[in-house]
Amino acid sequence: MKIINLSETDSILNRYIAELRDVTIQGDPMRFRRNVERIGEMMAYEISKTFPYETCRVKTQLSEAAVNLPACQPVIGTILRAGLPLHQGILNVFDRAENAFVSAYRQYTDEEHFDIHTEYIASPCLDGKILIITDTMLATGRSMEICYQAMLAKGCPKEIHIVSVIASRQAIDYVAEMFPEDKTTVWCGVIDPELNAHSYIVPGLGDAGDLCFGEKI
């Protein structure tokens, strides 16, 4: 399994992540969503380098040009709701992609313990396709794994790309254990060292869904 931590290379991505973390900027949900979307666009560009390509000929006003184009389009699968801006950023780049959505939520048994439940899935057939699964925060990795298992009811992808803005080291280790090693790549903006008692990433940024769309009750 490949783990791609984009923060290991200095780029403008660091600016967007810094603004996502900054409590003085987080009060602007439109800017928060746009920064997540920008990160999705940058990650999609990096993922595009791994696709198979084929040479096509494009007719210009003067002649023809040979262009290498992707030989297939991915399926972008997103965990609702915090993953939506990240999904949109990736879709901005892969604008011919198919799309899938899974709802997942934490149901707490007490203040520190919870189960992950899924209620809804909408997906095209995944057999033999490139699947990109997105969630803004990869905290424990359990939601990602449960949603992936739910998606397998729609077919078996040939490649899996897990995309997250911020991941915990614990989640990276969990995903490495639970996902197929030979066909999975994890892309993250940064890997943070730990989780708190409520399984939030530290230092992280807080609740990404609330910061994108407002607090839930």
Q: Percent of residues in helical segments?
A: 25-40%
Secondary-structure-derived class:
alpha/beta
Contiguous runs where pLDDT drops below 50 for at least 5 residues:
none
* Rg over CA atoms: 18 Å
Number of strands: 12
- Tally of discrete structural domains: 1
Beta-strand fraction estimate: 25-35%
**Which CATH C-level class is it?**
Alpha Beta
CATH architectural group:
3-Layer(aba) Sandwich
Average pLDDT reading: 93
Number of helices: 6
Distance between the termini: 38 Å
Anisotropy-based shape: globular
* Major sheet characteristics: 8 strands, mixed
CATH topological fold name: Rossmann fold
Tell me what the structure shows.
By secondary structure, the protein is of the alpha/beta class. It has helices at 13-21, 29-48, 84-93, 142-151, 169-178, 208-213; strands at residues 2-5, 53-59, 64-70, 75-80, 98-108, 114-122, 130-134, 137-138, 159-168, 184-192, 194-195, 201-202. It contains six helices and twelve strands. The strands form three sheets. Strands 1, 4, 5, 6, 7, 8, 9 and 10 form an eight-stranded mixed beta sheet that branches. The longest helix has 20 residues, at 29-48. It is globular and about 65 Å long. It starts with a strand and ends with a helix. The mean pLDDT is 93.
